[in-house]
Design brief:
22 strands; transmembrane; 5-stranded antiparallel beta sheet; cell membrane; Beta-Lactamase; Rev_trsase/Diguanyl_cyclase; GGDEF_dom; 15 helices; alpha+beta; 47% helix; flat; Alpha-Beta Plaits
Length: 590
């Protein structure tokens, strides 16, 4: 057998591999860039389109959802028309989660009564109710929201709109004519620099009689902000438009409509100041296109968004070919330089290792024959000609093999034992903090979570609310139906409370039929809304034999929890729960 130098065995393959890799990378960077560039550009465009598509669909979906919910609610329960104040309160609560939901309304066919939840299109704090019948018939006025009676104090900053009959308005007449949900035209809001779009639908009772029209409207400035927030490449553009080319939102600054001599005109792709948009307006067919804008070649793609009830919008993205060609070329050159540098470094390191391996190999050979294994562990990494390897195979192989088996078995046993102990500790901790019946935190788990939540609120200067609630007349449930049903009632309460809070909020069985909640960073209005949904859930979910339970709630709320101890909040909530119990039960006292 011919023996060769280990140095040559290490260095030569690395040199050959370096030359081969360099040639492959050079071929890729010089020949294949032009073949894959358009594919890379189209992939980039589709990523942008997908982001815009998902945002638009998520943004518009609540309009249709709310219209359908209210439509069915009136259709199956037309008696709600007898007291539109409660309906107005529900509209207000429906709009709370949606910052740019400017209107949710209902207009009655019988007497023309109209109610609406109204919000500033820019999503500011101006959120109130309107009605055209509270003061006098067909006089449209605004009212502050009152969580108890819904219509609060009248807003006097704006004069009433007399003679407002919604049945003569386009949102009403168009829906009745269509016989189904219909979209309004995209148009500016009066007095606000933003576009809006609405969806209205007729409401019929189960006999097919027209009860009225419910409608929603949303400000589209959010979509314009979203497109402007997307980080596009230099001289790249994105737009959202109607099928006729009228613009809804763009990534480029500029007006979306103009008003001259009292006449408002929408800005379209064709009339936009950007020449790229003007040229794009000539090609609104779905798919990929190539445009030439002042000698610059653009890859242009159009994609349709199909909204409910026959509405269709268009997404367009334009990026210059030079942008993704340059990125791909720079990337390829960088990869080439990094790869070549890596292989050169490895080849030099291999040569250095091969030069210095001889002496350590001989030392390792002597250590392998030594009765003390520690001699092997103290040796440096070997680097020498391969001829010394024959003398290593006698004592070193057996020693290394035995040691490997011992170490592997030991590590497995240690790892298994560590895993068992960790599982047992976690199981014991979970059992000590959890209520066995409801699966909620018990009193101990609650105390730990409450202290942690209060510390978080103090450190981040956020609000905190402690809610204590108690099942009304719980002893009567046990006396009438037995303790098994009483346990079921406790489980129902636990399920309902968990369904109406956020995942990170604390829900605990405080003791007996008492439960406690801790919520950080939530407004008092939203807390009241969630607790009212809890009360509504009890009405829809009897414990047994149509027997419904109710609860009383006491709330201790702090905007700034920096100077308040847990016991202070607990005492205050207890007092308010006591007040709720003594004033009739089934109440929320905040």
């Amino acid at each position: 057998m011919v023996l060769i130098s280990l140095r040559r065995l290490i260095v030569i393959p690395f040199i050959v591999l370096m030359l081969f890799a360099g040639g492959i990378m050079y071929y890729f960077s010089t020949v294949t860039v032009s073949n894959v560039a358009d594919g890379v550009g189209l992939h980039y465009i589709k990523e942008v389109e997908n982001r815009v598509y998902d945002r638009v669909v998520d943004f518009i979906a609540p309009l249709n959802d709310i219209v359908e919910i209210n439509r069915k609610a009136f259709s199956f329960r037309p008696n709600q028309l007898n007291d539109l104040s409660n309906v107005a309160g529900r509209f207000y609560e429906q709009a709370v989660p949606y910052t740019y939901m400017s209107f949710i309304s209902f207009a009655a066919e019988r007497d023309g009564k109209y109610i609406a939840s109204v919000r500033d299109p820019f999503g500011q704090t101006d959120h109130h109710l309107t009605s055209n019948y509270l003061t006098k018939p067909f006089s449209l006025e605004g009212f502050e929201y009152d969580p108890r009676q819904y219509f609060g104090e009248k807003i006097t900053s704006a004069p009433p709109y007399d003679g407002y009959d919604p049945r003569k308005r386009p949102f009403y007449t168009d829906a009745v004519k269509q016989g189904d949900a219909v979209w309004s035209d995209v148009a500016p809001y009066y007095g606000y620099k933003t576009l809006g779009v609405g969806l209205s639908a007729p409401v019929y009772d189960q006999q097919g009689n027209l009860l009225g029209v419910t409608a929603t409207s949303v400000a589209l400035i959010e979509l314009d902000k979203f497109l402007k927030s997307i980080e596009l490449g230099d001289n790249s553009y994105a737009f959202l438009a109607e099928e006729n080319g009228d613009l809804i939102a763009t990534s480029k600054s500029g007006e979306l409509y103009r008003t001259e001599d009292g006449v408002t005109t929408r800005v379209s792709l064709k009339t936009h100041e950007s020449k790229a948009f003007q040229i794009a307006s000539k090609q609104l067919v779905m798919g990929a296109h190539t445009l030439d804008v002042d000698g610059e070649h653009y890859l242009y793609h159009v994609h349709a968004i199909a909204l409910p009830h026959g509405k269709k919008w268009l997404i367009g993205v334009l990026i210059p070919q030079s942008y993704y060609y340059r990125l791909l070329t720079e990337y390829s050159n960088s990869i080439l330089l990094i790869t070549l540098g890596l292989f050169i470094s490895i080849a030099l390191i291999g040569s250095l290792i091969a030069h210095h391996i001889g002496k350590p190999i001989r030392a390792l050979n002597n250590a392998a024959k030594d009765s003390k294994f520690e001699s092997i562990t103290r040796l440096p990494n070997p680097l020498s000609p391969i001829r010394e390897i024959d003398s290593l195979s006698q004592g070193l192989r057996v020693m290394a093999h035995d040691l490997s088996d011992i170490m592997q078995n030991l590590e497995k046993k240690v790892a298994q034992r560590t895993s068992d102990l960790k599982y047992e500790n976690e199981h014991l901790l979970e059992q000590s903090n959890q209520d066995e019946l409801t699966g909620l935190y018990n009193r101990r788990g609650f105390n730990v979570g409450f202290d942690r939540a209060l510390l978080t609120a103090q450190q981040q200067s956020r609000s905190i609310a402690f809610v204590i609630c108690d099942i009304d007349h719980f002893k009567r449930v046990n006396d009438l139906f037995g303790h098994t049903v009483g346990d079921q009632a406790l489980q129902v309460v636990a399920d309902v409370l968990k369904s109406q809070v956020r995942q990170h909020d604390i829900v605990a069985r405080y003791g007996g039929e008492e439960f406690a909640l801790v919520m950080v960073g939530m407004s008092q209005e939203e807390i009241l809304s969630r607790l009212n949904k809890v009360r509504q859930a009890f009405l829809e979910r009897p414990v047994c034999e149509n027997h419904h339970i109710t609860m009383s709630f006491g709330i201790a709320y702090r905007n700034n929890s920096a100077s308040h101890a847990p016991q202070t909040l607990i005492t205050e909530a207890d007092e308010k729960l006591y007040q709720a119990k003594n004033t009739g039960r089934d109440k929320i006292v905040a």
